[in-house]
Amino acid sequence: SEFNGRGIKPVDFYAVDFNEDFSAFHGPTLDSQIAYTAAAIRYILSRYPPNTQIIVMGHSVGGIVGTALLPSPDISALITMSTPHMLPPVRFDSRIEEIYARNSRILREDETPILSLCGGATDTLVLSESCVIRDSDQPSGGLYRRTVFTSALQGTWTGVGHLEMVWCHQVRWRVARAALELGGAVSARDAVAAQRGRVLDRWLGDGVPVSDEENVELRHGTYETLPQGMHLVLKNPHGKRTYLLPLVRADGEGPRTFVLYVSRGAISSIAPHHAPDLQVSIQLCVPSPARTDGAELSVPTMCTPLRPNVLKLLPSPLPGRPFPVPNEGSDESEGVVLFEGEISSDVRGWIGVSINAGGQEGGGWVVGGFDRREIVKRDVVSLSDLILGTVHIPLTTAGGEGGLRTHVHIPRVPLNALLVYKLVPDFTDSSSCADAIFPPLLMHVSQPSEVHYYPLRHDDPVWLHSHSTAPYVTSLEFNPEHHGLNLTIYSYGYDCADPVG
C-alpha cells in the first residue's frame, strides 16, 4: 500500500551471467561482456513502452561493465558493488588499460548518477582505495557521485566480503528499496537526476538530508523550560510536549553545537527499521527583537525548525554481545538517531525539543544538550612514538553529568593501507559504563567516505584500519584538517567515565 499510494510500480529484475569468465585478466573478454550487456539491454527495453529506462547494478568487474555502458539514455542510474574502479586487479594487456581510461572519463563527465558500495578491509579481493570514486556535492546541474562503505551504511555497520556483498541481507534490501524508489523518480527532465541522487542518498547513505519540518507553536501548558546548562533526559517518554533548553553562552567565537540522541524513535525520516510511534523534532526558539533588551527573555509563541549538520542512525551494540554479531551482522532496529545542529554564537533564545510519543510508552529514551567539548588534539604523537611504545591520551569529562561526544584528532600519524593502529580503552571505573544510557561508541573516519563504528569496552582492543593511501593508487584529495586519526566518541551516562588511553 505504501508504494501504490505513491504511484511506484513493481520492478522487473534481469541478470547477466558471464559464467565466471576471468574478464578482469583479459581485455577482449571484458569487451565482449560490455557488448553483450549493451545488446541485452536493447532487447529488454524493446519489450517495454518507449522511453523506459533501466537501472544497472554491477558486482565486482560487473561494475566496470556497467560503467562502460555509459553514456546511455537508456540507463537511469548505476549502482556498483565491490568494484575496482580506480585500479584493475591485474594488468595483463593494454586493452584493460584503455577500458579503465575511458571509464575514468565517464566517472568525471557523465550525468548518470553513480554510487559505489565498498566492503572495506573485509573484502580481500578489491582494495578499499580501488573501490572509491571521487564524490561530488551535487550542485545544481552537477554530477552525482558517491562512495559508501558498508561499515557506514545505516543498518549494516560492518565490512562485507567480496562475494557476500550480493547476498548480505542488510545491503540487499536497501539496494532493492533504492531500485523501487528510483523507478518512481519522475521529476522534470532537468531535475530527475537530482531526485535520483536523493533516493540513493536516502537508502544507501550514511545519513540523509532532512525533510521539511513545520513550525511549532508554543501554547501555555504545552512546554517546559529546563534550567541553564541542564541536559534533557527522558526515559520512556509518552504524550506530547515541548522542552526548552536555554542557549548556553559560547566559549569562543565559533558556533554552539546541540546534540540529541533518540532511541526507539524518529527524527524526520531517520529511524530504526521497526521504530514505535515516537516522533521528535528540534526547533530554534528566538525571542522577537523587541523582547531582547531586557535581562530576561520572554518565550516566543512560535519556533522554527533547526537544520541539522548531522542526522543519521548510529549503531547501539548490545552489552555483552560482539559487534557486529558473527555471521549475522547488525540489526537496524537497535539503532539510535543522532542529531547535531549548530547555532551562531550571537543568537539568544532556546532550543526546543518537541516529543510526540502518543499515549503509550515505547521503552525508548531521549537525551540532548549542548556540546561544550573542544577537539582533543595530540600534535606530539607521531608514528615513531607508536612504534616504540604505547601513547596514553587522557580524556576528561566536562561537567558533572557526563559528556555527549568527544572528538580526538591525532594529525601527525600517517594513514596508509599498510598500517593498522591498535586502540585499547582504559576506563577509570570499568563497571561505571554498565548502566550508561548510551554506552561509549567510537566512530573512526579514515576518509570522508569510510566510517567505522566500535563499542568501547574496558581492555577490549579496537583495530583502526586506514585506507587513505595505498601503493600504486592515486590518493583522493580531501581536507588537510582530516589528515591523521579522526575519532569521535558518542556516549551518555551519569556515571560512565571517559576512556583514558
Automatic annotation (TrEMBL):
<dbReference type="InterPro" id="IPR012908">
    <property type="entry name" value="PGAP1-ab_dom-like"/>
</dbReference>
<dbReference type="Pfam" id="PF07819">
    <property type="entry name" value="PGAP1"/>
</dbReference>
<dbReference type="InterPro" id="IPR039529">
    <property type="entry name" value="PGAP1/BST1"/>
</dbReference>
<comment type="function">
    <text>Involved in inositol deacylation of GPI-anchored proteins which plays important roles in the quality control and ER-associated degradation of GPI-anchored proteins.</text>
</comment>
<dbReference type="GO" id="GO:0015031">
    <property type="term" value="P:protein transport"/>
</dbReference>
<dbReference type="GO" id="GO:0006505">
    <property type="term" value="P:GPI anchor metabolic process"/>
</dbReference>
<keyword id="KW-0812">Transmembrane</keyword>
<comment type="similarity">
    <text>Belongs to the GPI inositol-deacylase family.</text>
</comment>
<keyword id="KW-0813">Transport</keyword>
<keyword id="KW-0378">Hydrolase</keyword>
<protein>
    <recommendedName>
        <fullName>GPI inositol-deacylase</fullName>
        <ecNumber>3.1.-.-</ecNumber>
    </recommendedName>
</protein>
<feature type="domain" description="GPI inositol-deacylase PGAP1-like alpha/beta">
    <location>
        <begin position="10"/>
        <end position="181"/>
    </location>
</feature>
<dbReference type="InterPro" id="IPR029058">
    <property type="entry name" value="AB_hydrolase_fold"/>
</dbReference>
<dbReference type="GO" id="GO:0006888">
    <property type="term" value="P:endoplasmic reticulum to Golgi vesicle-mediated transport"/>
</dbReference>
<dbReference type="GO" id="GO:0050185">
    <property type="term" value="F:phosphatidylinositol deacylase activity"/>
</dbReference>
<keyword id="KW-1133">Transmembrane helix</keyword>
<keyword id="KW-0256">Endoplasmic reticulum</keyword>
<keyword id="KW-0653">Protein transport</keyword>
<keyword id="KW-0472">Membrane</keyword>
<dbReference type="GO" id="GO:0005789">
    <property type="term" value="C:endoplasmic reticulum membrane"/>
</dbReference>
